[in-house]
Amino acid sequence: MPTIAAPAQTLLGSDAVAHVWTVNSDGSPQVSVVWVIAQDDEILFGTDASSQKAKNLSRDARIVLSIEDEERNARGYQRHLVIRGHARIEVGPDPALMDRLAVKYTGLRQHPLALRDSPSSVVVRVEVDRLSGVGPWIDETTAPAFFGG
Questions:
Q1: CATH code of the domain in which 89 resides
Q2: Fewer CB within 10 Å, N or C, the chain?
């Protein structure tokens, strides 16, 4: 498992939300916005087991997360991080994780939604296979000029 580079860790530590892409049963893409946190070499987020993303990941663990940075690179392109990986679902609530996410994204000490303690909540752990995008998390000297990898 690759280590998440320090610049990527910094973006993941910001309040930028992640767009999560999963694969529907018919092969079409499904996207949703989630709050994420990096923990060691994994990316974590919470959701309800009945959500489409959780259903999709239970069937097909492939996942892509896209996180936009506020900065632009030297060429003027918006920096963004793309994470390709595989997800593992842990069944059951994790109030501590949900509260960490709430502090990060809202400043609240406790997550405001029932998802925090719901028996139908799950934690999604993303094992990173590859980082790409535009930013210091990739080698821009070898990446394609426009897409950044």
A1: 2.30.110.10
A2: N
Pick from 135, 32, 30, 119: nearest CA to 79? 135
DSSP 135: S
Can you spell out the DSSP letters for 53-114? Answer: HHHHHHH--EEEEEEEEEEE-TTSPEEEEEEEEEEEEEES--HHHHHHHHHHHH--SS-SSG
Q: Which residues contact 27 (CB under 8 A, 6 or more apart)?
A: none
Query: Rounded to whole angstroms, how far apart are CA atoms 138 and 149?
Result: 8
Tell me the pLDDT tens digit for each residue of 10-28: 999 999 999 999 999 999 9
Please count the residues of the chain: 149
Flag whether 141 is in a domain: no
pLDDT tens digits for 81-136?
999 999 999 998 889 999 999 999 998 888 766 667 678 899 999 999 999 999 99
Which range of residues forms the domain containing residue 112?
6-134
pTM of the model: 0.88
